[in-house]
Amino acid sequence: MSAPLKNSKKGVLGKKVKGFLATKSACRGIFSIVVALLIWELGTRYGLPVLSAIPPPSAVLVSFKESFVDPWYWGSWESSFQRIGLGFIFAQIIGIPLGLLMGTSRYFRELSLPVFEVLRPIPPLAWVPASALFWPTPEESIVFVTFLGAFFVTILNIVGGARSIDARYVRAAVSLGSSRKDIFWRIVLPATLPSIIVAMTVGIGVCWNTVVAAEMLAGHSGLGFLTWRAYVTFSYPLIVVGMISIGIAGYISSAIIRLLGSRMTPWLKTS
Amino acid sequence: MILSQILGGKGGALAKKAAISSEATAGKISIRDVSIVYDPEGARVVAVDGCSLEIPAGEFCVIVGPSGCGKTTLLNAIAGFHGVSSGEIYMDDQLLCSPEMTTEPGADRIVVFQNGALFPWKTVLDNVTFGPLIQGRMTRKEAREAGHELLLQMGLSGISHRYPSEISGGMRRRVEIARAMMNDPKVLLLDEPFRAMDALTKTVIQKYLLDVYDASNKTVFFITHDLEEAIFLGTRVIVVTSRPAQVKKVINIEIPRPRDFRVLSSEYYRHLKEETLEAVHEEAQKAFEAGEREMA
Fold first, then answer.
1. Is A80 buried (19+), middle (13-18) or exposed (0-12) by CB count in 10 A?
2. B117: nearest CB among A168, A182, A186
3. Which residues in chain B are closer than 8 Å to A173, comparing Cβ atoms?
4. Which residues 148-177 on chain A approach chain B with CB closer than 8 angstroms?
5. Rounded to whole angstroms, how far apart are CA atoms A214 and A127?
6. Is B69 helix (H, G, I), strand (E, B) or coil?
7. Peptide bond before B258: cis, by omega within 30 degrees of 0?
8. Mean pLDDT value of segment B164-169
9. pTM, entire model
């Protein structure tokens, strides 16, 4: 049912769909999805407890078709991706150097880490009211909470990564004639890169969690807002369309990060 | 494998720069009454106590002693990773360290570590060229050329574009020795480099190290607690006491070079092993009873 969508998504990513589909595990995967869709469809028709409340897949499919030609639907994608992009990229731009600095300088770490330790457990969404206060528009506050979602993850992961660098590498580099600057660029940075990528992978997930909820709370556009508006306007199939779209968007984002990650760390075998 | 001949044979700037010269003119190490005291949180641990040792230029000097006796501490002091509490260490009559000063680690005294320290994010070739490039001694092109040349000499050219994680442990050690040799060090400091290796790989890589040594005549400071290894490789075997480390016994190994693994079954070798074992056993017993764990 959602097969054409699945294929096009894979096509975008340039995966070897044909070879993959031939494997047994792929067949089992497709089977499980088809069965789940069947249970869903039949469950809604025959009024199974929980399922009867939600629209059947056939209705969702119709809604999907409508959405596909609706510029507003694609506009929602664009808004969400824009927020994710801004929040996530700012989190990296600020978080990576800060994390590296905190990871390598004990002085700086002891001065600044306590602040992060206190702020980190606050869920990004709890920042929504406060950020609405200190940012002029809702748009900026949504981007800000999205930023926070990835920011703390980035900082803490990188600090951990930079601190756990094996002293042998540093000693070997010094022994081979490296200056402090060389140690940073040629040892600390590449040795921390895997942690940076882990932080990005986790961070992009947190970003999506955050942006969707923030859009529901304070947005006037985006996939989260689309889903919420569908609920408020009683267009229930569209709720499911929104949910699936968010899932796909999140998947695409993490696939991009993964691809980027494996390009950046060719020495880690993650085929 | 005759590194010097081939590299020297090229005659040009390359050979001079990658230089593995066969005459041992530099690399004399003098350890004079050195004591090293660790003082983590006030617990004075004497790792090395009044240790004196003269290592002539170009000697293959093997240090044998029980685990945790302070061998590594001594090596770290020569390398410049650690200061001394009293006494002095000289290299070629130049003060390396005393209680007042410690010379920074440098490419003239390269360490090959116990667990290996090839940079996992660099290919074999990039690891090997790391030294000359970081020191600004060669251009990228020169370094790559010299690196390729050296890897070829050392029988490693087939893996120059692999990452360390893609090659075997024995190969990694060879690459690490190559990386050290690229810097034309005066002294090679090897800290139980073949410890984690299986016996068969070990013999292959020991022979390999001997070939490199025979061709280059670098001073080698080699730590091990494997007696066979010590005798097979060393010109002199220095047995040190359990912590604090002092020289207990010096055994001259008069097996001619180039050496072959067949010497391992000779009468002379057996005799040497007995002599060494006797000296070491006592210390091992002491260390065992003291229940000390390996430090540093």
1. buried
2. A168
3. 119, 130, 134
4. 166, 168-169, 171-177
5. 10
6. coil
7. yes
8. 90
9. 0.79
Q: What are phi and psi of A46, to 5 degrees?
A: -100, 15
Q: Nearest residue on chain A to B128, judged by CA atoms?
A: A176
- Strand order through the sheet with B45-55: B45-55, B29-38, B86-91, B94-97
How many interface pairs between A and B have CB atoms less than 8 angstroms apart? Answer: 67
ipTM > 0.85, yes or no: no
B179 and A CB contact within 8 Å: yes
β-pair partners for B110: B188
**Which of A52-56, A139-143, A167-171, B178-182 is least confident?**
A52-56
Summarize pLDDT for B79-90 with one digit per residue, the tens.
Answer: 988 888 889 999
Q: Which residues contact A65 (CB under 8 A, 6 or more apart)?
A: none
A187 min Cα distance to partner chain B (Å): 8
* CB-based contact, B125 to chain A, within 8 Å: no
Nearest beta carbon to residue A267 from set B109, B115, B121: B121
Q: How far apart are CA B125 and CA B161, in angstroms?
A: 6
Contacts of A130 (CB under 8 A, 6+ apart): none
CB A157 within 8 A of CB A99: yes
Contact A70/B at CB under 8 A: no
Report the alpha-carbon distance of residue A181 to residue B110 in Å, rounded: 20
C-beta of residue B241 within 8 angstroms of C-beta of residue B65: yes
* Identity of the residue numbered A254: S
Q: Which of these ranges, A158-162, A257-261, B31-35, B196-200, has the smallest mean pLDDT?
A: B196-200
The residue that leads in pLDDT, A175 or B19, is A175
Total number of residues shown for chain A: 271
CB A190 within 8 A of CB A170: no
Tokens encoding A153: 């993850």
Mean pLDDT over A112-131 rounds to: 89
Local confidence band at B20 (pLDDT 50, 70, 90 cut-offs): very low
Q: At what angle do helices A24-45 and A57-68 cross, to 10 degrees?
A: 110
Q: Are B242 and B279 in contact (CB under 8 A)?
A: no
3-state secondary structure of B233: helix
Question: Strand ranges (DSSP E) for A45-180?
Answer: none
Structure tokens at B246: 């002092």
Question: Locate tokens 């090839």: which residue?
Answer: B118
Sheet strands side by side (includes B109-112): B109-112, B187-191, B219-224, B60-64, B236-240, B247-252
Q: What pLDDT shows up at residue B294?
A: 45
Q: Which two tokens stand for residue A74?
A: 């694609």
- H or E stretch at B49: strand B45-55
